[in-house]
Write a structure and sequence with these properties.
Length: about 725
């Protein structure tokens, strides 16, 4: 028996490591044993700890309506423990077994985090009681004495570790230190504090703090540049267990506890752990329209289900695409107290070789050669911005930083991106960490169409400098509208400042190939453009191609229209429409040609986002020059209707109804509906076997809202034939 216990003992010892005295401390979840009696030496026989000052109870004032959570803006967190923000005082009360006598009694507080608490790492914090509190530094002072109790005001450091601390009260006796026993009820979460001037995430506008830290729902803008669509997303950063799930993400990423007071480090590791590539992170991406054994990205209505599933299973949740990564990342940042917002960049470049050029290769007929073309333009791409100072960069590059959890390219060997200063990207200072060149390319690349001649020479047919990054948007502060922030990322197209920023970026090592003028002589006296008629999913529509001949010559143009069903990432699935015709272009005149697209041509192959990409190329026969234009278009997708019945009062049952009418010329099968609303109801799901064409489905849900105020209900419908169907409703929940 003795032998087995011995081997167990050995297992518990940390492995020997010649370089450091203690193993690395990178888990907020693990704890160490803290002795309740720490003797100074031999304890005399007559020593009775009960003769000395003894702690009977500790009051944390941790209820949502009490002073701490009110003053620290943490009253919305659905958690029974104390949650405070760093660099700002909070109150606790200690009850002793007799009145406290400052002349003879000595006690102090100890805050500990992780398995190997050390004072120089900020993971063991002893706090002596003093007379004054210095702003932004650890300290405590007595504010009130009554009978056997004292009231303390405790100040945390404005740079301290963010996470869950354990609290002990220690009392000095001549023979040793007496401590309170481990009590999880006194655990204290300390978060970032955008209200505190000394905090790296300080934000000076109250309306912005309410939006970027405290708002638990947001808007995702999607669709494309010509047809902007939007849907709500429930961030749910205050919901039950979400704070613990977010702290678990940092443990999963093995971020040293001592680095967890630094928002730059937290953002960098989080951008890697949000996606499952190379570290088994939160969400597995899938862009291939098959979502077996998982949830289709378009079906999620918010972050809570994803984070809680990951927290319990520790396995990547299937599946996500860019807005899902960005939605969950936003929840993580706001939950920890870092101001954050979700951004959409329309016509976002995914430049595989980071040369600021998206190379589209055409074949003889002017069609895009999909084998040669590796770069792609995403109809839109979502990322996040987090607000913080950047003491690691020159002055002026703090503020909004791009962070992106969608796995696109590796950075320092892992799929992650950021934080990259938005200001540095605008001015072309892409030498500053992290990943600024990649983000710069996403908003600034040129599209180059080139064709290989029979003799093997590359001929550049067209350069489009304005297509990429045309519009960058986010949700407005305090409302559901859209606000354009393109000018935060780039100067006006074609302005001198823009050219200067580009030259700066090139100087800092962004590869930009120059195109010799001799090779590129476009046809300038003929303009070509096309329009796609707005259409509802399931109906026919037309594409109109317009030519304007500005010369006195007659031309004939061999015109080719190619219609492709594409993923929103701009990658084509298949060509569903080919149409060629010869157009006569009279001198000094305009002409228009219609091409009809029938629903039967596209319905079978349609992907999630009902997204088409049209390419029109025209060869002017007389000169051999090629004109090329491309556009993405999105079909109108039907929406869900949400209604409520009866009165809506916190704590009382209410009824919510979701309705949907099937617009397709086919029966929908295996349909999943989801409904959620932070503070009103946790996500509920329902499956329906079939919805015949033109028939209406009705689903009633009963729930008991928890929090009064203006809340939002969000629903989604999903099946193989139809995705990205959403509905939402604002509801005012009354106080009981």
């Amino acid at each position: 028996m003795s032998e087995t216990t011995n081997t167990n003992e050995e297992k518990k010892k940390p492995p020997l490591n010649g370089r450091r005295a203690l193993p690395s401390s990178n888990s907020n979840d693990e704890e160490n044993e803290v002795p309740e009696m720490e003797a100074f030496g031999l304890v005399p026989r007559g020593f009775n700890p009960k003769d000395y000052l003894r702690v009977v109870d500790i009051h944390m004032f941790k209820e949502p309506h009490e002073i701490n959570k009110q003053e620290h803006h943490t009253d919305k967190y659905y958690s029974p423990k104390l949650i405070v923000r760093r660099g700002q005082p909070f109150q606790i009360q200690v009850d002793f077994n007799r009145p406290y006598k400052p002349e003879t009694d000595q006690f102090w507080l100890e805050y500990l985090i992780g398995r190997y608490p050390q004072q120089n790492k900020g993971t063991y914090i002893p706090i002596l009681v003093g007379d004054v509190l210095k702003p932004g530094e650890w300290g405590a002072k007595i504010t009130h004495k009554e009978n056997n109790s004292i009231r303390l005001s405790v100040m945390s450091s404005a740079t301290c570790i963010v996470g869950k601390f354990r609290l002990y009260v220690a009392v000095w006796t001549p023979f040793g230190i007496l401590r309170t026993h481990r009590n999880s009820a006194t655990d204290t979460y300390i978060l970032f504090n955008p209200w505190c001037q000394q905090d790296a995430v300080y934000l000076d506008d109250e309306k912005e703090r309410e939006e970027y830290v405290l708002n638990d729902v947001g808007i995702v803008f999607h669709g494309n540049i010509n047809e902007i669509k939007f849907r709500s997303w429930s961030y749910g950063q205050f919901e039950e267990n979400i704070l613990d799930a977010c702290l678990f993400l940092m443990d999963k990423a093995e971020l040293e506890l001592s680095g967890r007071g630094n928002p730059i480090k937290i953002c960098r590791v989080a951008s890697a752990v949000i996606n499952s590539r190379d570290d088994n992170g939160v969400i597995a991406g899938s862009w291939d329209n098959t979502y077996t054994y998982g949830v289709a990205p378009s079906a999620w209505t918010g972050s809570v289900d994803i984070l809680l599933e990951y927290y319990s299973s520790k396995q990547p949740v299937r599946y996500g695409q860019c807005w899902v990564f960005a939605g969950v990342f936003n929840t993580f940042l706001r939950c920890l107290g870092i101001p954050a917002r979700l951004i959409t960049n329309y016509s976002s470049a995914h430049d595989n070789n980071a040369n600021l050029m998206l190379d589209f290769f055409l074949d003889d007929e002017g069609k895009v050669d999909t084998k040669l073309t590796k770069d792609s333009i995403w109809n839109y791409h979502c990322w996040n911005e987090a607000w913080m100072t950047r003491p690691d960069l020159p002055v002026g590059f703090g503020g909004w930083q791009v962070v992106d959890g969608t796995p696109q390219e590796t950075s320092d060997g892992m799929y992650r991106c950021g934080p990259a200063s938005v200001q540095a990207i605008k001015h072309g200072h892409v030498c500053f960490p992290f990943d600024a060149p990649f983000v710069y390319a996403e908003v600034n690349s040129d599209i180059v169409y080139s064709r290989r001649e029979k003799n093997g020479t590359q001929v550049i047919e067209k350069i489009d400098t304005t297509h990429v990054g045309q519009l960058i948007v986010t949700k407005e502060v305090g409302g559901d509208g859209m606000v354009e922030i393109t000018e935060e990322y780039k100067f006006q197209e074609g302005s001198q400042e823009e050219r200067l920023a580009l030259e700066t970026a090139v100087m800092y090592g962004i590869k930009k190939q120059t195109t010799q003028d001799t090779m590129y002589q476009p046809q300038t006296d003929v303009d070509m453009d096309f329009q796609v008629q707005k259409a509802v999913l399931g109906s026919d529509f037309k594409v109109t191609i317009n030519f304007r001949n500005k010369s006195r010559n007659s031309y004939t143009a061999t015109t080719y229209l190619s219609g492709n069903i594409v993923f929103y990432t701009g990658v084509a699935k298949n060509e569903f429409k080919k149409h060629s015709f010869s157009a006569k272009l009279e001198p000094y005149s305009s002409s228009a040609f219609d091409v009809v697209i029938k629903s039967s041509e596209y319905l079978n192959d349609l992907l999630d986002q009902a997204s088409f990409h049209f390419f029109v190329t025209a060869r002017i026969n007389e000169t051999g020059k090629i004109l090329a234009v491309q556009k993405a278009t999105v079909l109108e997708i039907p929406t869900l209707r949400i209604k409520t019945r009866g009165e809506m009062i916190a704590g009382k049952e209410m009824s919510v109804t979701v309705e949907f009418t099937n617009p397709l010329k086919q029966t929908l099968e295996n349909v999943t509906l989801r409904l959620e609303g932070p503070g009103v109801l946790r996500t509920v799901k329902n499956e329906f076997r079939q919805i015949p064409m033109n028939s209406t489905l009705t689903w009633e849900v009963k729930c008991i809202p928890k929090r009064p105020g203006l809340r939002k209900l969000i629903a989604s419908l999903n099946c193989d034939a139809l995705r990205h169907v959403y509905g939402e409703l604002n509801v005012q929940i009354q106080k009981p």
